[in-house]
Amino acid sequence: MAVVGVLALQGSYNEHMAALRRIGVKGVEVRKPEQLLGVDSLIIPGGESTTMAKLANYHNLFPALREFVGCGKPVWGTCAGLIFLANKAVALLAGQKTGGQELVGGLDCTVHRNFFGSQLQSFETELSVPKLSEKEGGNDTCRGVFIRAPAILEVGPDVEILADCPVPADRPSITISFGEGTEEEVYSKDRVIVAVRQGNILATAFHPELTSDSRWHRFFLDMDKESQAKAFSALSLSSSSRDTEDWPKNKPLDLPIFE
Fold first, then answer.
1. Is 207 a catalytic residue?
2. Where are the alpha helices (DSSP H) in the chain?
3. Residue pair 171/117 in contact by the 8 Å Cβ criterion
4. Extended beta strands in 129-227, E state
5. Burial class (CB in 10 A: 0-12, 13-18, 19+), 218
6. How far is CA 236 from CA 183, 222, 256, in A?
7. Per the residue annotation, which of 15, 16, 79, 109 is the catalytic one?
8. Mean pLDDT over residues 88-107, rounded?
């Protein structure tokens, strides 16, 4: 059985652990770099991204997290976790420092922290996610819980957009600052990206762990199965190219077992 790590520095890691238990999956809390060695995939939960970054620095987690993402193991970031995984985070408001925290990176996108405003602008809405229905069944929509949430402003060519949502009418007007000496612009589109996938990385601006819908967690686990299947296929191709006489006699291969 796959073991899912949940980064447990701050935020909604308990809710992710509970969601994993509901679908019969083993989850383990991760707080130190060496604990990443024992997990097959990783969830980076929502929370306060700046606080999480400070704690990750304190525990020297950033190098291990980048290595984990880089080696191709599935990683899912929700809300603050999305910010962690983005290659670029722009400033909250005009005049503020671009980025403002260390990022893990790996996801080819630009994310805007607190795009939807303050805690008072938190909201819930129905999101259209055909890919989720296609993979995990159910209807084409899911409930999105947005709490002081980020949003994705732009993505690279290899990023698959899974969901977007209308920009709420009561959202404060936000000016995007791209750093000192660069032009600022106001986000004027009617919709904004809130869920994406790029290879082994899944990212959502909302909190599926705060709902009873387990399809996002199952979707993520299926990414882990895909990753293992690719590794199995690569190993099989490598094995088939060898002379069978090189293998020990009467000794079974220690390979993954798939249902």
1. yes
2. 13-22, 49-58, 62-70, 80-85, 130-136, 215-240
3. yes
4. 141-146, 151-155, 160-166, 175-177, 184-186, 191-198, 201-204
5. middle
6. 53, 21, 11
7. 79
8. 70
Contact 26, 1 (CB under 8 A): yes
Q: Active site residue: 16, 112, 207, 217, which one? A: 207
- Ranking 27-36, 46-55, 124-133 by mean pLDDT, the lowest is 46-55
Catalytic residue at 209? yes
For residue range 206-241, what is the model confidence (pLDDT) as tens digits?
A: 999 999 999 999 999 999 777 665 554 544 444 444
Q: Six-digit token pair at 231?
A: 């590794």
Q: Which two tokens stand for residue 32?
A: 């130190």
Active site residue 16: no
Cβ-based neighbours of 13, under 8 Å, separated by 6 or more: 6, 7, 29, 43, 45, 47
Q: How far apart are alpha carbons 7 and 28 in whole angstroms?
A: 9
Give the integer Cα–Cα distance in Å for 36 and 71: 12
Instruction: Give Cα separations from 143 to 17, 99, 107, 214, 225 (angstroms).
Output: 19, 29, 24, 11, 25
Tokens read off for 90:
């722009």
Residues 6+ apart with CB under 8 A from 257: none
Q: Choosing from 16, 112, 142, 209, which is the catalytic residue?
A: 209
Instruction: Characterize the bridge pairing of strands 191-198 and 160-166.
Output: antiparallel
Q: Which residues contact 130 (CB under 8 A, 6 or more apart)?
A: 140
Scan for tokens 């408001």, then name that residue. Answer: 93
What local confidence, expressed as pLDDT, does residue 187 receive?
A: 72
Token pair in block for residue 223: 């990414």
